[in-house]
């Protein structure tokens, strides 16, 4: 059951654009795709913060590098788009490696925070120079043409492939669990068969959802297909990243990270190569953040130094992580969606006071929900899940 | 020209010093990364500007700008005191930064405001050297305030507590020092210095809503270069950064902003704890 929850959320979110269209708030679609891209970025940030205790103010460096590299590929090299984020990930992981190498002497706390910030500032001010207008785009920014693929109706189909792969993985895990527990009681066995039943239901619902999404995308004339297609792409990317990361933090590697966070000296004494562990985390985080940058240029279709390398972007990631709760993989995702919704949708109703409203909301949220929004949502979901069997029992 | 650049650099260095001293002490003692510090700088500049341009007296302007200390006091008492977790405080100060910057924008708009005190508009010539009299004035006032702050932090009982608190917070608490009162006072003094620094910059570079947040980056760089919570380090780093910045502005304008990033990077790579900082575990 628990293994399937992310997939259920994925399906619900897949259907959101249709709902928005029906409700007449089409402008929410790009807002949500932006939220998903920022969620990917914030997760890369809080991977370092929550699992290693590294506060990386230079995270926007990876984001900006990814965005510009993707822009160059699309503009000058004419690389087909699906390849662009992959190359971004490679560049981002190299940048992460470089940052780890620079910090090889002191790889912790404040020195790390500010070494990364100073590297970011060097890039930021370099890209803001007038002399580099040709490669940075200056204040107006580089205009990026939308790849043709986003005007077709095949994008929802791609998410089917992703989803099937993920489901196969869930089934595989279930089978492994069944093999592991040979002395299983009949009740647990029933639990597994119920899981398989649920799995098939989820599959069926998903196929329905994707059919609906394809119909929705195909029902629009070509120029209007971009926005739902970008929505589906960013959502799928977020889903892949979430599943992989959730697996990763439960492997011995992820547990070793937590050991390093909680007590580095002790972890070292136990024989862990703490520098290597941190380097791996930084490389992964850099790759994820660069992919987020590569997706961002598709959403924004324009990139300038202020939207790529500004230190404010790192601070945004920090805000998302803390508001959502940095010590869970779900935290930054929920934080990013919530904050983006407040910033871009609710704040619109306040005219010139919008930023003041957002600032006040930050303070109110952290004041009353100290543990992060995701913690409270998580316990709410657990309560509802606990009630679910009781309801089923009463009916029978 | 070289001498003028150095003098301008020292003047700017004193502004930096007043801005970053508060930031450094607040971080060292309270472990708060105060993102709202730049906004209080801006607010101080606007308050001082409003009063000084009406009365025409720069002393009243400085007095008005020092009211920012009260704003800082209120902030600490109401918001930061309730949540003593560093990460939560980062979000609170970030929220305040957005809020205050936007309030300044709503009230005063994007256009830079500038006001020059009478008698200090001109330049002073000494042979081939040209010095702006207002920048000399900044050096005098800045030096006076800095000496005062230095005296406060190194010679008084309060300063003793602050320095002891930076070294070991739990220890002085267990020795019977009222740490909450120390925090509040330190925050108020730090923000007061930022407010005055903001006002002193008005006749030179004007004031616009984002000036404080821009200068905050420099202040962070200074705090890092000088060493977190080190008063002497902050003094040296401020003057150094001010001079580097002005030398670049005179001779190599394309390096003005990048130079600070590079300086910060070099210091961190060679001496991660800052020029005069202690290793923070």
Descriptive account of the structure:
The complex is a heterodimer of chains A (396) and B (281). In chain A, 77% of the residues lie in helices and 1% in strands. Chain A is mostly helical and 396 residues long. Chain A has helices at residues 5-23, 28-52, 59-77, 84-102, 109-128, 133-136, 155-180, 186-218, 226-249, 252-262, 264-269, 274-300, 305-308, 311-324, 330-344, 354-368, 373-395, and strands spanning 142-143, 302-303. In chain B, 51% of the residues are buried. With 281 residues, chain B is an all-alpha fold. Chain B has a single domain (2-270), classed as Orthogonal Bundle (ABC transporter involved in vitamin B12 uptake, BtuC). In chain B, a hairpin with a 2-residue loop joins strand 1 and strand 2. Classes of the chains: A mainly alpha (396), B mainly alpha (281). Chain A binds chain B through residues 102, 105-106, 109-111, 114-115, 117-119, 121-122, 124-126, 128-129, 131, 311, 315, 318-319, 322-323, 326, 352-353, 355-356, 358-363, 366-367, 370, and chain B through 35, 79, 82-83, 85, 87-88, 90-92, 94-99, 101-103, 106, 217, 220-221, 224, 228, 254, 257-258, 260-262, 264-265, 268-269, 272-273, 280-281.
List keywords for this structure.
heterodimer, A: 396 residues, mainly alpha, two-stranded antiparallel sheet, B: 281 residues, ABC transporter involved in vitamin B12 uptake, BtuC, two-stranded antiparallel ribbon, 12 helices, 2 strands, globular
Oligomer: heterodimer
CATH architecture level-2 label of chain B: Orthogonal Bundle
Strand count, sense and closure of the main sheet of chain A? 2 strands, antiparallel
The proportion of strand residues of chain A reads: under 5%
Classify the helix fraction of chain A into a percent range.
Answer: over 70%
Offer a quick outline of the entry.
By secondary structure, chain A is mostly helical. Chain A has helices spanning 5-23, 28-52, 59-77, 84-102, 109-128, 133-136, 155-180, 186-218, 226-249, 252-262, 264-269, 274-300, 305-308, 311-324, 330-344, 354-368, 373-395, and strands spanning 142-143, 302-303. Chain A has one domain.
């Amino acid at each position: 059951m628990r293994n399937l929850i992310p997939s259920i959320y994925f399906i619900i979110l897949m259907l959101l654009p249709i709902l928005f269209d029906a409700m007449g708030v089409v402008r929410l679609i790009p807002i949500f795709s932006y939220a998903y891209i920022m969620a990917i970025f914030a997760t890369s940030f809080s991977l370092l913060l929550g699992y290693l205790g590294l506060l990386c103010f230079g995270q926007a460096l990876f984001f900006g590098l990814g965005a510009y590299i993707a822009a160059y590929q699309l503009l000058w090299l004419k690389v087909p788009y699906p390849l662009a984020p992959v190359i971004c990930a490679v560049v981002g992981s190299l940048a992460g490696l470089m940052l780890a190498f620079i910090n090889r002497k002191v790889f912790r706390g404040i020195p790390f925070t500010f070494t990364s910030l100073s590297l970011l500032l060097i890039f930021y001010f370099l890209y803001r120079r007038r002399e580099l207008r040709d490669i940075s785009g200056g204040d107006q920014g580089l205009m990026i043409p939308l790849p043709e693929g986003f005007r077709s109706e095949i994008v929802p189909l791609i998410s089917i492939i992703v989803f099937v792969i993920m489901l196969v993985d869930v089934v595989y895990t279930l089978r492994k669990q069944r093999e592991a527990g040979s002395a299983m009681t009949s009740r647990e066995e029933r639990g597994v068969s119920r899981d398989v039943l649920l799995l098939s239901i989820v599959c069926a619902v998903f196929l329905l959802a994707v059919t609906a999404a394809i119909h929705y995308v195909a029902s629009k004339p070509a120029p209007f297909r971009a926005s739902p297609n970008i929505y589906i792409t960013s959502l799928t990317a977020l889903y892949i990243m979430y599943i992989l990361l959730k697996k990763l933090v439960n492997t011995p590697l992820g547990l070793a990270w937590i050991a390093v966070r909680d007590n580095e000296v002790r972890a070292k004494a136990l024989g862990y190569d703490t520098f290597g562990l941190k380097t791996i985390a930084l490389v992964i985080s850099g790759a994820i953040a660069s992919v987020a940058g590569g997706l961002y240029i598709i959403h924004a279709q324009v990139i300038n130094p202020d939207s790529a390398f500004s230190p404010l972007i790192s601070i945004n990631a920090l805000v998302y992580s803390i508001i959502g709760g940095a010590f869970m993989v779900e935290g930054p995702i929920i934080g990013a969606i919530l904050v983006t919704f407040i910033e871009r949708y609710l704040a619109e109703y306040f005219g010139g006071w919008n930023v003041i409203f957002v600032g006040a909301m930050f303070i109110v949220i952290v004041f009353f929900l100290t543990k992060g929004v995701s913690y409270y949502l998580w316990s709410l979901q657990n309560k509802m899940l606990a009630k679910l069997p009781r309801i089923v029992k009463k009916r029978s | 020209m070289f001498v003028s650049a150095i003098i301008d650099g020292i003047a700017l260095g004193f502004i930096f010093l007043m801005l970053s001293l508060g930031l450094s002490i607040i971080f060292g003692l309270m472990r708060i990364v105060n993102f709202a510090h730049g906004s209080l700088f801006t607010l101080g500049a606007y308050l001082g500007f409003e009063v000084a341009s009406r009365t025409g007296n720069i002393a009243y302007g400085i007095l008005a700008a020092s009211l920012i200390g009260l704003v800082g006091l209120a902030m600490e008492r109401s918001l930061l005191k309730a949540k003593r977790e560093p990460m939560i405080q980062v979000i609170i100060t970030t929220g305040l930064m957005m809020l205050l910057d936007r309030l300044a924008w709503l009230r005063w708009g994007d256009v830079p405001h500038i006001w020059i005190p009478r008698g200090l508009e001109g330049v002073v010539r000494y042979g081939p050297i040209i010095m702006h009299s207002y920048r000399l004035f900044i050096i005098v006032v800045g030096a006076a305030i800095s000496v005062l702050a230095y005296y406060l932090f190194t010679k008084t009982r309060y300063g003793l507590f602050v320095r002891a608190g930076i070294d070991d917070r739990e220890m002085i608490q267990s020795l019977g020092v009222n740490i909450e009162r120390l925090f509040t006072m330190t925050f108020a003094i730090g923000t007061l210095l930022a407010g005055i620094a903001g006002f002193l910059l008005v006749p030179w570079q004007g004031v616009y809503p984002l000036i404080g947040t821009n200068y905050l980056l420099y202040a962070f760089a200074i705090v890092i270069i000088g060493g977190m919570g080190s008063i002497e380090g902050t003094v040296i780093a401020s003057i150094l950064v001010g001079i580097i910045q002005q030398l670049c502005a005179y001779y190599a304008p394309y390096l003005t902003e990048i130079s600070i990033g590079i300086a910060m990077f070099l210091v961190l790579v060679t001496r991660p704890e800052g020029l005069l900082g202690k290793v923070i575990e």
